[in-house]
Amino acid sequence: MAAAEARWNHVWVGTDTGILKGVNLQRKQAVNYTAAGQPQREEAVSALCWGAGGETQILVGCADRTVKLFSTEEGRFQGQRHCPGGEGTFRGLAQVDGTLITCVESGILRVWHDNDKEASSDPLLELRVGPGVCRMRQDPSRPHVVATGGKENALKVWDLQGSEEPVFKAKNVRNDWLDLRVPIWDQDIQFLPESQKLVTCTGYHQVRVYDPASPQRRPVLEATYGEYPLTAMTLTPEGNSVIVGNTHGQLAEIDLRQGRLLGCLKGLAGSVRGLQCHPSKPLLASCGLDRVLRVHRIRNPRGLEHKDEPQEPQQPNEVPSEDTETDELWASLEAAAKRKLPDLEQTQGVLQTRKRKKKRPGSTNS
């Protein structure tokens, strides 16, 4: 029964409590999947990607540095492996040719044997991509190529089959009109289809397009949206625009050819944490700090297609004994009698009279 339910889920979401949630949009129901026991904060999901079996396997990167393998056909977790090294949570997961690619916040990118489950195994390759990584993204058309970027960590493109040096490293934009250095904060990265171009969104509400084939390493196009940090980004099915979300739950579509705003969507109640467009249909899935999954139509007519409200806990929280005693104490006290408020005009008259009678020291009557 669980396998049948998992097979027909349309959207998969990872939570901060370590739960993998499968959502069926037609039935408007969600199912929670856990590896074992009760959900734990130590197993918070920080990265998701499809496994080697296409859409039949999901790789789940957790905060405790374990990567779990979930089967959508069987509806259960099939195994896990520990990926040590570096500090911070996973900022990206990928899989190519029987190997697993991981990257953590401190800037350690490692390639592992996918079928080796021993925690003490050494990685096949280790790269230091720089500290403060916010995102590692794999190129769908060239699976052995990945891009990294973060806070004060410029965009870099790496060929895992080549040297240990990046094949492309972005150059920061020129100083601003006050001749001050512009800070770097790449929050998300996407590869544009059928080209070598990349697009990034920044914590300073900028969307930038880079072309490694161009002689210049600075952005070939830059657009800004709103006033708040952009936290997530996804390509539209056509590949000519991106949808970005910021810390205030606002969603907007930006054209990558002219850098103009194409439209906005009613966003989330909290900061946007994840965005994903359907590869062929004009649908956008979004989630954030309000713990609500929304699916929007991004083409005319734009609007909300589905909304998955969070479920309330089945058992009420127990009230501590100290709070119970406090409530009994307040219940035993008598209510204070109501007092009539003084008339406002009369009060103002008294104040004016007092002000007139008040004299400054040393003054005399004329």
List the helices and strands and how they pair.
Blueprint: H1 2-7, E1 11-14, E2 20-24, E3 29-33, E4 45-51, E5 54-62, E6 66-71, E7 76-82, E8 90-96, E9 99-104, E10 108-113, E11 125-128, E12 133-138, E13 145-150, E14 153-159, E15 168-169, E16 186-191, E17 198-202, E18 206-210, E19 221-224, E20 230-235, E21 241-246, E22 251-255, E23 261-265, E24 272-277, E25 283-288, E26 293-297, E27 303-308, H2 321-332, H3 344-357
Antiparallel strand pairs: 1-2, 2-3, 4-5, 5-6, 6-7, 8-9, 9-10, 10-11, 12-13, 13-14, 14-15, 16-17, 17-18, 18-19, 20-21, 21-22, 22-23, 24-25, 25-26, 26-27
Characterization of this structure:
By secondary structure, the protein is mostly beta strands. The strands form seven sheets. The protein has a four-stranded antiparallel sheet. It has helices spanning 2-7, 321-332, 344-357, and strands spanning 11-14, 20-24, 29-33, 45-51, 54-62, 66-71, 76-82, 90-96, 99-104, 108-113, 125-128, 133-138, 145-150, 153-159, 168-169, 186-191, 198-202, 206-210, 221-224, 230-235, 241-246, 251-255, 261-265, 272-277, 283-288, 293-297, 303-308. It has a domain at 1-82: Thrombin, subunit H (Beta Barrel). Residues 353-366 have a biased composition (Basic residues). This is WD repeat-containing protein 74. One of its GO terms (biological process) is ribosomal large subunit biogenesis.
